[in-house]
Design goal:
alpha+beta; 2 domains; Fumarylacetoacetate hydrolase, domain 2; 256 residues
């Protein structure tokens, strides 16, 4: 996880119901202090050191009191099947998401994102893609439907919400997980991530045939399109996206 420590991004880890400061717990001066640096280190022995530290009897002594969680990782790039790229703000768990000033309503596309742990140079066979994945996180993709009545939504000016954690492949198999979407306490949809996980692997393999991929890039795919059911987000809505093994990503939309 990533939390706010004196106004800076700081690497934490889940320990039961606690969030512990992972660099302080490990205690080595070169251990990464942020998730971005941890991903860039390619895991391996660095993650082994983290797991060993979390297994110590004194690990709970490094718990953070009332941590304010941030987006767990800031991807070097975020790729999905949406054809229109755009610069978009990234928010984290429990954030108040500002309502875009030009929005009539928002479309929610719940997704799971796979973060690459090392560069990919050359075509990567689909069956080898899991070895390049650092971990998985949840993503709330908010697309603006403008007041102008434009028929297709636009990501321009629309926030992305990431969290609550990046879970390593050793801890979760997304192909066996279910994701549930709730808005204002009402269940909107529930679906299996099996097909989504296969789509993610295919996306990474396809992209690797076309260009070099960098460590920290994220690929996102979703189990369903809620707009098919006529679901719309309005100002003040409280959203929860929950997936087995990854956690629950919660956020609230601001007022217009």
């Amino acid at each position: 996880m990533t939390y706010d420590r004196n106004g800076r991004r700081r690497l934490g880890a889940v320990l039961g119901d606690l969030v512990v400061d992972l660099p302080d717990l490990v205690g080595h001066p070169v251990f990464p202090s942020t998730m971005e640096r941890l991903v860039a280190s390619n895991g391996g022995t660095v993650l082994d050191a983290a797991r060993a530290a979390l297994a110590r009897e004194d690990a709970a002594l490094f718990a953070v009191e009332r941590p304010r969680l941030l987006a767990p990782v800031l991807p070097t790039a975020l790729r999905s099947a949406d054809p229109e790229p755009a610069e978009r703000p990234v928010l984290g768990p429990d954030d108040l998401v500002p309502w875009p000033p030009h929005a009539g309503w928002l479309e929610l596309r719940p997704r799971i994102a796979a973060v690459l742990r090392r560069p990919v140079e050359g075509a990567l066979p689909r069956e080898e893609v899991p070895g390049w994945v650092f971990g998985y996180t949840l993503l709330g993709d908010l697309l603006v439907h403008p007041r102008s009545g434009r028929p297709e939504p636009t990501p321009r000016g629309s926030p992305i919400v990431l969290g609550p954690a990046v879970v390593t492949p050793e801890e979760v198999d997304p192909q066996t997980s279910y994701v549930t979407v709730r808005v204002d306490g009402r269940e909107w949809a529930k679906g299996n991530l099996n097909g989504t996980a296969r789509t993610l692997l295919a996306q990474v393999a396809l992209a690797s045939r076309e260009e070099r991929l960098a460590a920290g890039e994220a690929f996102a795919s979703g189990p369903f399109e809620l707009n098919r059911f006529g679901e719309r987000l309005w100002p003040g809505a409280e959203v929860e996206i929950e997936a087995e093994g990854i956690g629950a990503l919660r956020f609230r939309l601001g007022r217009s």
